[in-house]
Amino acid sequence: MRIFLFLLVGVIIGAQAQDQNRAIEFPNTKDYLTLKCDFHIHTVFSDGSVWPNIRVDEAVRDGLDAIALTEHIEYQPHQDDLPHPDRNRSYEIALEQAKPYDLLIIHASEITKDMPPGHANALFIQDANKLIVEDPYEAYKAARAQGAFIFWNHPNWVNQQDNGIPVFSDLHEKLLREDLLHGIEVVNDITYSEYALKLAEDKGLTVIGTSDIHGLIDWQFKIPEGGHRPINLVFAKDRSVSSIKEALFAGRTVAWYNNILVGKEEHMKPLLESILTVSSNGMMGPSSILEVDLTNHSDARLILKNVSGYDFYKDADIIEILPHSTKRIEVLTERVVEEGVSLSFDVLNAVIGYKKTAHVHYTLDK
Ligand code: ZN
After folding, report:
1. What is the pLDDT of residues 164-198, one digit of tens each?
2. How far does the centroid of ligand 1 lie from the alpha carbon of residue 212, in Å?
3. pTM of the full structure
4. 210 CA distance to ligand 1 centroid (A)?
């Protein structure tokens, strides 16, 4: 019996440790809090398979700061069983379920139209029932009248355009002009559109990355096998719904998908400065080989390419730094004439533009 209890306690402690380990972690930047958010989620109140409490529990396990349940206004496949006369119920139930936790719930809905303009999520709404409007343009206007931040969902969706390349239509131009379109999904579920990142840059749209989960997070994103859900990192002044709203309108985001960080350069740069710190450990004995520690303070596995011009003693030019760990490299500095050692890397899994990756640079004392 005692052995059984001992084992049981071990299992419970093990489970807790695993759960703490599971929470997604990214450091704050110099100027902002880094909030982990998912702005595209479904439940049985549209075409999802679970009750809203499961979405709250999943988000808590993943250590998220905020979620938005975005039920399709127009697509209600469970309506015979769940008549759903009040389209705010999903939000209200989630809000109630989230009370014991430190999780923000954003009131939202998915406006589900054919292309163009396709599907869009309206965040920070007051009343989802008022979005039941047939004309797409009028539906966007009804959401905006409530102060909504509106983003274009899966613009690359193959069901809507068979080549997988987003087309920014005249209607999208009109929505953009009239302050009815503010963001674009570069990441949706298990798809990634680098062309959508280009559109975000060209049109001044906020970069969005979401799970668009319908089933279970663990199954869809293979969490037991080491996967992670796609999330939006939002650089906010404080941890509140109003600060997230301010940050989204200001465009301060990076998405994290399949171990790839994707966002605009001005937001990626401060994030990488917090994620990756570099320190010199001095020369290895009497040699001219400099020991340098590279520390990764995030859940992302960093893939760096050395573009410094120096060779390393043990590593080739491609190096990986595992999440929350330090990697020591030994830099051959003999040919250096200047005072310090300049190390430069391309961060191969930090995308800052169409076919363009981020670059980091460090100067170290010899
Ligand atoms: Zn959706």
Report:
1. 899 999 999 999 999 999 999 999 999 999 999 99
2. 5
3. 0.93
4. 9
